[in-house]
């Protein structure tokens, strides 16, 4: 076994860039907290919704 496994791995939080414990004890990993996790998912969801809401321009050029 490697000695590194004894210590939790610290990774930068994708949302705030702070220290995040990448271990089973951190249910929000790789995020540092629930707030950061929800913030990131919210941004992703809103962006996805915006893309789906935008009408495909190619279809508008097709003859009806
Ligand atoms: Zn964070």
UniProtKB/TrEMBL annotation:
Belongs to the DNA gyrase inhibitor YacG family. Its cofactor is Zn(2+). It comes from the Bacteria. Zn(2+) binds at residues 13, 16, 32, 36. Binds 1 zinc ion. HAMAP family: DNA_gyrase_inhibitor_YacG. GO terms for molecular function: DNA topoisomerase type II (double strand cut, ATP-hydrolyzing) inhibitor activity; zinc ion binding. One of its GO terms (biological process) is regulation of DNA-templated transcription. Inhibits all the catalytic activities of DNA gyrase by preventing its interaction with DNA. Acts by binding directly to the C-terminal domain of GyrB, which probably disrupts DNA binding by the gyrase. Keywords: Metal-binding, Zinc. This is DNA gyrase inhibitor YacG. InterPro entries: DNA_gyrase_inhibitor_YacG, Znf_NHR/GATA. Interacts with GyrB.
């Amino acid at each position: 076994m490697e000695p590194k496994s004894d210590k939790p791995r610290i990774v930068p939080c994708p949302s705030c860039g702070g220290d995040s414990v990448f271990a089973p004890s951190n249910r929000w990993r790789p995020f540092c907290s629930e707030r950061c996790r929800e913030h990131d998912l919210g941004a992703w969801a809103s962006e996805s919704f915006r893309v789906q809401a935008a009408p495909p321009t190619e279809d508008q050029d097709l003859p009806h």
